[in-house]
Amino acid sequence: MLGIVYTATSAMLALSVLFVLFRLVRGPSVLDRIMCLSTLSVLLVSFMAVEMAVRGDNAYIGVLVSIALLGFVATLTAARFAERRAHDLD
User: Fold this and answer.
1) Where, by residue number, does the polypeptide cross the bilayer (predicted)?
2) pLDDT in tens, 66-89
3) pLDDT on residue 90
4) In angstroms, how far apart are the furthest CA atoms of the chain?
5) What global pTM score does this model have?
6) Contact of 16 with 53, CB cutoff 8 Å
7) CA dist., res. 51 & res. 61, Å (int)
8) Integer Cα distance of 73 and 68 in angstroms
9) Are 17 and 40 within 8 A, CB to CB?
10) What's the pLDDT tens digit per position in 49-65?
């Protein structure tokens, strides 16, 4: 049963990565591309968490937290950049 759940979860995450990569390439603006990179980091953390759960191993929990924190800080930085840029254009 766990194998079926793992396969389904991995397939959904892989499909999500494909959609995000498509949007990354075709995104009309820089902010779209930045948000796609943020989403890719979340998908990476999700895939690693599923892999750790299946293996019953928690050796990479520090890596997961680091990647999640880095993605969060990058998203905040992009939002501040967009806010300042919009304010400067007004």
Assistant:
1) 6-25, 34-54, 60-82
2) 999 998 998 899 888 887 876 777
3) 63
4) 56
5) 0.81
6) no
7) 11
8) 9
9) yes
10) 999 999 998 888 999 99
Token digits for 76?
Answer: 């905040």
Residue whose pair of structure tokens reads 């396969």 in the numeric block: 7
On whether the CB atoms of residues 24 and 36 are closer than 8 A, the answer is yes
Residues contacting residue 54 through CB under 8 Å, at least 6 positions apart: 2, 6
3-state secondary structure of 46: helix
CA distance 41 to 24: 13
**Domain coordinates of the chain in residue numbers?**
2-89
Tokens read off for 61? 């929990």
**For every residue of 3-32, which 3-state class applies, written as one string?**
HHHHHHHHHHHHHHHHHHHHHHHHCCCHHH
Retrieve residue 27's tokens.
């995104």
73 half-sphere exposure, CB direction, 13 A CA radius:
6
